[in-house]
Design goal:
Layout: H1 8-12, H2 14-17, E1 22-24, E2 27-33, H3 37-54, E3 59-63, E4 66-71, H4 81-94
The structure holds ligand H2B.
């Protein structure tokens, strides 16, 4: 899947298209909280498999039961359609 840069209006619409995500320093960010470390790490494993399939990888951190994910497209230096697709798939995993 090719990474197409989001237009300014597509970026404005993100609040509606991906309501659980926030724009932080130009990246799409969401924090997840789980019952414990095992659940958090299991979620990260599922995200890793999706990221490999898309060849699009998150910037993320984990502290015990919390996982913070930031999405951006390094190849274009900003947000792309791949960030939106990965965010959608992550939302589906967390649902
Ligand atoms: N992930 C993200 N988030 N941005 C990229 O530009 C990117 C990536 N590029 N994963 C991919 C890998 C690229 O480096 C490889 C060579 O396909």
């Amino acid at each position: 899947m090719a990474a197409l840069a989001l237009t300014a209006s597509e970026i404005q619409e993100l609040a509606e298209t991906l309501p659980a995500w926030s724009l932080v320093d130009g990246r799409l960010q969401r924090q997840f909280r789980f019952a414990d470390f095992c659940e958090a790490f299991g979620f990260m494993t599922q995200v890793a498999l999706v990221a490999e399939r898309l060849d699009h990888h998150p910037e993320w951190s984990n502290v015990w039961n919390r996982v913070t994910i930031a999405l951006t497209t390094h190849d274009i230096g900003g947000l792309s359609t791949l960030d939106v697709e990965l965010a959608r798939r992550i939302d589906a995993l967390a649902a």
